[in-house]
Amino acid sequence: MTTPHLNAPDIDPDEVAYFENLAHRWWDEQGPFWPLHRLNDFRADYIRTQLCAALGRDAAAQHPLQGLSILDIGCGGGILSESMARLGARVTGAEITPKNVRVAQIHAQWSGLDIDYRLTTADALAEAGETFDAVLNMEVVEHVENLSGFLSSCGRLVRPGGVMILATINRTPLAWLMAIVGAERVLRWLPKGTHQYRKLVRPAEVTAALGPAFTERHRTGVRVNPFNRAFSYSRSMAVNYMLVLQREAGA
């Protein structure tokens, strides 16, 4: 197990404490993380489709990601990691809160899945020289303190020719209204304080931090129906969005 750099500049100790207090609720589909459970099927399908297109796989195969090495950064309790493992991938889940790692490990054992969960950071993995076919950076960047440093480390973790898929919330007035005021304070879909407006990230900030070694392959907005709580694609990226970025083969 890699020792985490808990004093790294991209780690916000207040964010760590916040999510550690919620760790035991990760797999309660009616608890505070129900949006992640609803979102997971939607985003897992997107990830499968995009990875297969970028890496020459058959998305219709029973295990289309068979043999691919995938890093799930900020894996939390392992919701997405388990979905990727069921598609055949060799999954490493990186997390900075010990309780979340233990929750993820226990649930993977119950599920009969072999997932390498580690208490570590992107910076520590990059310094160790590790690389992966795909890095999944889902709903993480809006919680880090040093965006450029974090994304630089994540970029180093993608092998040449590999892919990063990132999902987050845009920093726009509409996102503040929908994701913070609406989801946290009015509808109470998320615990109050889950997101801070200053940490929300614009797409251009992502691509700038990753630099010219990465080419954008796909982008889409994501919207949620407040009545049936279903997620769908949207042309607008003003609130939630996903990006697919591929590292140049020679980079």
TrEMBL record:
Pathway in which the depicted protein is active: Cofactor biosynthesis; ubiquinone biosynthesis
BP GO annotations: methylation
Pfam families: Methyltransf_11
EC nos: 2.1.1.222, 2.1.1.64
InterPro entries given in the database record: Methyltransf_11, SAM-dependent_MTases_sf, UbiG_MeTrfase
CDD domains assigned: AdoMet_MTases (cd02440)
Entry keywords, A to Z: Methyltransferase, S-adenosyl-L-methionine, Transferase, Ubiquinone biosynthesis
Catalytic activity: a 3-(all-trans-polyprenyl)benzene-1,2-diol + S-adenosyl-L-methionine = a 2-methoxy-6-(all-trans-polyprenyl)phenol + S-adenosyl-L-homocysteine + H(+); a 3-demethylubiquinol + S-adenosyl-L-methionine = a ubiquinol + S-adenosyl-L-homocysteine + H(+)
Keyword presence, Cell inner membrane: no
GO molecular function: 2-polyprenyl-6-hydroxyphenol methylase activity; 3-demethylubiquinol 3-O-methyltransferase activity; polyprenyldihydroxybenzoate methyltransferase activity
Annotated positions binding S-adenosyl-L-methionine: 43, 74, 138
All residue ranges annotated as the Methyltransferase type domain in the record: 71-166
Highest taxon, organism lineage: Bacteria
Family: Belongs to the methyltransferase superfamily. UbiG/COQ3 family.
Alphabetical list of HAMAP family matching this protein: UbiG (MF_00472)
Protein task: O-methyltransferase that catalyzes the 2 O-methylation steps in the ubiquinone biosynthetic pathway.
Protein name, per record: Ubiquinone biosynthesis O-methyltransferase
Gene that this polypeptide is encoded by: ubiG
